[in-house]
Predict the structure.
Amino acid sequence: MNENIGSDIPGTGNRIRDHTLARHRLTILLVALAMIMGLSFGTPKAVAAQGAGQKSDSAGGNGLIVNDRFWNDVDGNPMYMQGGGIFDFPDPATGKVSHFWYGVHFSQAEAYRQDPTHALTGNDFISVDVYKSANLTDWRYQGVALDRAQADAFASDFGGRRAGWVCRMGVAYVPELHTYAMLIQHEMPTDATGRNFDKKVMIATADSPAGPFKAQRRIDMRDYGLGTSNTGDQSVFQDEDGTGYLIYSYGRGRGSVWAARIGAKGGQVDLLEPTKLYQGFGREGNALFKYAGRYYLAGSDLFGWDASRIHFQVADHLFGPYQPVNQTVIMDGSRADFGHITQTGFYYTLHGSRAETVIHCGDRWADFAGNGLGYNQWNPLSFDDSGTPRFNSMSRWKLDADTGLWSVDDANDYVLNGSFEADRVSVGEQGYRDKDGNVIADIAGWRRVNPDAVNNVADAYGRVGDYDLRFAPGRSRSASIVQDLDEPGHVPLHAGRFLLKLSYANPKGMDQARIAIESGGKTSEINLAASTGTDWKQASLLVDLPGGQTKITIDASGSSGQTLHVDDVSLTGVPEKGNETNDVADHDGNGTPAGPGGSASGSVEPDKSLPVRPVAGSGGLSSTLAATGIAIGHTPIFVASCLLAGILSMVVAVYCRRRLIERN
């Protein structure tokens, strides 16, 4: 008996060791699997801010339009689209009418996308590219519509020199000639200095809306009403019957605006019925749109490549008369952030089954002006009963291409001009004057208290954009800047959870500094008084808001030599799981979905929006998790995953113990 027992001990010990090792291995495997699942489900698609040159997003997709980003097409390739337009033509492959979007690709646009921390000065033409879409948000590349060789088609007339400026264009179908015509600004150097140019409008034609377009001739605009050979700015408007019109301004000063029908004359594409629509203060970014049977002539301030307020007039007929006569009205909503920090590019009117929606397609000539991320910023207009338009500034919104209805996306940023780029100039204590001589009293979208101590200043930190905000105690030892989110220009703030965020630099510390948000009688804030040294930090605050009247305040106080710099203030919605976007409400975007109330504490961490020297964060667990790739809002999921791993390990241990007993 003892002998038998003794002989079984090594085998039993081996079995116990083997089962124990197997149990440990299985437990480790399950724990690792559970943690991987937790990290996968707990980590959002974009956790920390990427390097500035890598921020990108598609034009939208599935009805979503995302601004303040460089756009990609449906295949994930960069889109370089400036100074063009969207036109509806039959698809040659299917015969179905599709949206064709044309825009100019400059070489500097590529460089700016890679490093948007400083503006570039060149405008080297590569091509006019064309994309096609069925819903205005999913764009598929169709190829080069006009290449460099066609832009240089007239080089032999200018000593072999290549074309300079080639941009501001549109396409129209000319039924008399069964051809598609592209009209584009075109400048040829007249000598080797690079300072003197022969400026005209080039006409190119194609058999298909996707091209390729072949250069036909250059026309002198003095033959079409202007006193200059070139247009100041121009775009092409397509009316509901498919007829195209060139909308163009005087080449010097843009003091007059004209329209001409694109048709046929003498067997070739030409401009017919040139008519002056406006004479007065200079307006650039000239464009036309139509809503409810009326025509709206739009333009922008003479602010060069920079952002501008939107000006308009209205008429019952395309050729006018436009009211008010020879005067423009600034569009409601466009003052708050100068048309989402854009210049007027072109408009597109979507005729849906339930509503017409006019989209303001603003150009952010970022590679020439440093206005921020992205070349294209699209926002919808709404209209009151009298037909007066209002600009709705949003970073994210939803468009239903079938119904024509739009709504604010849950993750929209509700702060306007949070980058302080709209004004394009440093706003002094008394404000500044526009090109018409009128005073712009304050920083766009904000109200300053003690403006001698707070202003927007030229950025010296190598950040995206030309300006940031600076608090510098002068006569006033304290100052604040306020944005009321229920002021004109803001879309209604829905109830729900939001993330308030900003970047800031505080080299020497301040006596007192904070950002605060007040809503529903409750105030939540982040302390910004501590010194950041030479670096920038990001501060964030999760807060539940009841909707309605909400105010954001940044204030600081200190003594001479202390400064606080602030940039990129945002208040973005944090969608609840399963409710990532709002339902389409109506074309005025007035839906206010319900949500919880309350507040949350904030955190401070290194600013990851740019490749700056890192600084240790002070946000506790939230900052630590964020630094490891787990978003603050997903912490409960991470913890639950760890608990699940522990439970699974216990179950495995019990199971293995029972199996061991059964075997022995």
Q: What stands out?
A: Helices lie at 2-42, 107-114, 148-151, 338-341, 366-369, 620-627, 635-663. The chain has a mean pLDDT of 83. The longest strand covers residues 268-279. The chain has seven helices and 39 strands.
